[in-house]
Amino acid sequence: MNDEIIVNDSELVEPPVVHADRRPSEWLMTIREAWHMRRTKIGVAIFAFIVALAVVGPWIAPYSPTQFVAPPYASPAPPKMWLGSDYIGHDVLTRVFYGGRTVILLSLAATLIGLGLGVSLGLITGYARRWIDESIMRILDVVLAFPQIVLALLFVSILGPRLWLIVLMVGISHAPRIARVARAATLEVAQRDFVRAAEAFGVPRWKILFNEIMPSITSPLLVEFGLRLTYSIGLIAALSFLGFGMQPPAADWGLMINENRLGIIIQPWPVVVPVLLIGVLTIGTNLIADGLGRALIGIERDTGVG
Amino acid sequence: MPPLLKLILMRIGLGILTLFLVSIVVFAATQALPGDTAQAILGKEAVNKARYEALRQQLGLNRPMVQQYAGWLGGVVRLDFGNSLVQDEPVTKLLARRVENSFVLVAIAALISIPVSLLLGSLTALRRDTKFDISVSIGSLGLASLPEFVIGIVLMLLFATQLFHWLPATSPVSPVLPISQQLELFILPALTLTLAVAPYITRILRASTIEVLESEYVMMARLKGLPERLVLNRHALPNALAPALQVTALNLAWLAGGVVVVEYLFGFPGIGSALVDSVANRDMPMVQAICLLIASVYVLANLTADILTILVSPRLRTGLR
User: Fold this and answer.
1) Is any Cβ of chain B less than 8 angstroms from the Cβ of A13?
2) N or C of chain B: less Cβ packing under 10 Å?
3) How far is B298 from chain A (nearest CA, A)?
4) ipTM for the whole complex
């Protein structure tokens, strides 16, 4: 990667051998290792299937998601309405085809926000002076004291059910949890020789943080990404289910469950299908996270690091 | 001061600090509202400037922020959260029975999920890579991925509406009857919470038990030639007790948040469904009271677990951190 930077900065003639114990792109190794496991392959297959469904869905949907095609809660009538109609007479299959995009996109956005915030805070607290570390960790403790959904609801009660707010709050609620992982990894990496060497050569601390430490903690963050994505999907869908996420007439799996749950006895499909798809999707992402986690543990054991 | 006592006192101080900061966040929540409480109470009548000003005066909204916070916190300590904006009654009175309902619900879920996950977590770790371990691990991995509402709806379809009609699909717990007479209304929500939290806890416990079993001091004990029973009882289990306590705290903390979606799903009249309603109505005194309650449960559960951990774990007792 940026192996030259230290040399340029340290004004030394001979490049110090500071990268001797950094393995070539650790995260690639983790992915390769994880891919050998069956659970990872199943997880990736599930995730790919649901994403494909969400991407292609709108093109193969038989109707428009807001078109009234039948009386409310009509039973399935193939080949025109495979899954029947919902509480106001939309075609359920059509809305299932449309409803995955928002769930996946919003969850990805929330996870990336959480990862960005959490990694920054983790790097800083793991490598900063004691009082900075202490004060940031105390603030994160406060965020941690609220269960994730409660934190989101507290802010929805102030600013109203805004989509950006929900994504942001889910991301923020991930941040302290990710920060803990990033901090632990940073603390460990900061002890290694190549960081010590860079410090000895007087490389500025922020440069060490970005050029030396960050590339070395990507593997645990990869695992975190999978795990937090799983929780994001659950949280985003739950917030829509509670009525604070996507708003009618949008087609969204979480919202569909909320809209149609009172008719569950006469017409279960508009609830059952989104519930199953969300469930399968979270199992898929969690299988990927688990595969990556196991790969990471295996690599750490083999190399004696960690 | 003995170092152990110092450690515990520091932990308590930290807990109090966190609770204090949490209360500031929750208080600040209302201050960020567009308009103020007087406006929220009066609604459209707020155009009547005289009434609006009078009510502001009465509610003390003209005082400086710090004074308002102190007044509010003083009320909170005496369990006075003010009146609900929707139903003009004290929040404490409106929440009393709901707190009781949620408490019973969480207690049932905790009483089932804690022993089950402790047992499964330690057994799978001890019988690692056997068929038992693999099947429990796969099952718990699958269940732990699922959001609570997915588990709840599947249970509802299975046991209430579609397959079997054994249990009520909704849980309208009556406020006039005693809880003991309507326990069947608690079964599905409690089962949902149990199935959502137990697998998650089982997985954490399995990992931490394996970590203890593979640790150097357990290896050392084995190398000394101690019988396996003694290795487990003297060296492994005391150190595995700490994770067990942490796990119990995690469990309770998780349940405090898990009730929100599950209560809403089953129409169960507890603090979780009250939070959803109050957020929809922007009934800030109710939202504040419930958020503060849930956050306190979380902080206190963790605090208790940490103190007990300090007391039971040999590594910490001997001053190693």
Assistant:
1) no
2) C
3) 6
4) 0.89
